[in-house]
What we know:
Pfam families: Aldo_ket_red. It is a single chain. By secondary structure, the chain is an alpha/beta fold. It has one domain (about 5-235, about 300-320): TIM Barrel, CATH 3.20.20.100. Helices cover about 35% and strands about 15% of the residues. The strands form 2 sheets. Strands 3-4-5-6-7-8-9-10 form an 8-stranded parallel barrel, surrounded by 5 helices. α3 (about 105-120) links the parallel β5 and β6. α2 (about 65-75) packs across α3 and α8 packs antiparallel against α11. The longest helix is centred in the last third of the chain and has 16 residues, at about 265-280. About 45% of the residues are buried.
Amino acid sequence: MKYNKLGDSDLQVSEICLGTMTYGQQNTREEAEKLLDYAVSQGVNFIDTSETYPFPNKAEKLGITEEYIGEWLIHQRRDSLIIATKVAGVTPLTWIRNGQNRIDSANVTEAVESSLRRLQTDYIDLYQIHWPDRYVPLFGDGDYDPKRERETIPITEQLEVFADLIQAGKIRYLGVSNETPWGVCEFCHIARQLNLPKIVSIQNGFSLMNRIFHIHLAEACRFNQVGLLAYNPLAFGFLTGKYLSGIPKDSRLDLFGGMYSRYDQNNIAAAAQSYADLAQQNGITPAQLALAYVRSRWFVTSTIVGATKIEQLQENLASVTVELDETILTEIDAIHRRYPNPAA
Length: 344
């Protein structure tokens, strides 16, 4: 396991980050602890969660994932682990602070205190804005539409809130998620201009089927020293090959497929088959090909992998031994040209 510096922070994070959004929904507390134990035993020091997990969000399960991690965390050496969590942005989910959530002082302070309590820790290493306070198209929402712009908390005010929390020792570093090039540049510009906390990371989707980050965000993050934490590197499981012959029982597509209509496209299946064939030709699994590709990109600091079973986690972590040569990368680019970004 390699460790990479996260942006311009002093955090050294494992190249694989353990994602936890199934804990409390598809995984029991006992299963979650086994997954956490195994990941740490293999060198993972970076764990990502959110106040909104498990996902899908339900009122009666809000915060359970953090609670599971907290019960496990009190038995660990805290200073050897990097814990990341997130605060929800504007949301129609009325059970998150009565549906009035904003990235303002009252909401963020309440969110941080609640996460600290559930995680049973005195500080959060990386605190992330789960999605922007302002309007941006999210989660397959289509093109940017100025008519949908809404009143927003100024970025300066948002950063001032986090400055107070960092000064109080409750969070160490700030990151964003589901952000745009404009957002990254504006957060960094204002932080430097006003001597406020600068973001050190961005958590956005990136995979063989979603290479949009390459186009503009890679440049914005490079010049602002912001590291990518790549989520959904297996494209909702399509890049594992498990959906090539149907939908397995209790898979996320079986359980929650209606929430992921943007994956219901013919070229996703064709792309998944092509990548699976390429993996087989090179003696690795489709998941390992997908994860090795993400890990090979110069702008990726850590790849977030989730798993509901130990066997899945073992396969995913084994991908760190896979190095893709130029021949394979050329084949990947050829497939990408045939099926560009079907899961973006």
